[in-house]
């Protein structure tokens, strides 16, 4: 694990030190007023069940039956909810020149809206628990690292279908995020890299994006990641402010721990040029949460309260102040 003290980049779920040096981009997003609407209530039980269902397929590793079974289930969940579902099936090249099947799934809501938010999470699992204290060759469930973010977004999709938002929302579930090796920074996030080069709609743009990665663990703390501040500080600060206003200050922290992460949001920022921030659980010292890339990343670490905090904040932003930053 390359988890280092504050002020130095660390390695995380896509997980290599960030080398970006350019300054934050100025946002041209128009300001809007906070909308007086009834915000749906996020159902944590639903998000928990969505998470558990993904885990039930077994590790969602490329080239395994679990990959195909889980992909088919995800598509089946989204098709009745979204206005349009796009499926990207391709082959990406992983470490040691291995060919890997990749299935990206995109669900579009309110497609006529010109002002849009991109929500994304990866749904694959790392091939082995390479940070495990006892057996680093074993497979892991990836309940938090992968399934929790997707579980939250599936529940959000259910709410978007029930109550149409004024903003356009696109949910991107990316594959082959966690197959990489530390020696090759760009060997991670292969599904997102493919989508950034080949978006589901030609010339696709969103005002900003929100990445969910490890958002279900008990006692999670979410700090403002360095690359997210660099590229998407405005919408990220708005999200943190909303979470704190809702009473979730124990989860969404303002302390600067000096940590930058190479995760899916890096490629959305640098390749798709959509300002995107990462919501990901870290420890105060900048290290990963203890279950990261271990066999302990199973349903026992998933907490409905954490899912509720992240999901309700997301709905509050989407329905009440999607572009107020």
Automatic annotation (TrEMBL):
It comes from Chitinophaga rhizophila. The lineage of its organism: Bacteria, Pseudomonadati, Bacteroidota, Chitinophagia, Chitinophagales. Residues 104-317 form the Peptidase M28 domain. InterPro entries: Peptidase_M28 (IPR007484), QC/QCL (IPR040234). It holds the Pfam family Peptidase_M28. This is M28 family peptidase. Keywords: Acyltransferase, Transferase.
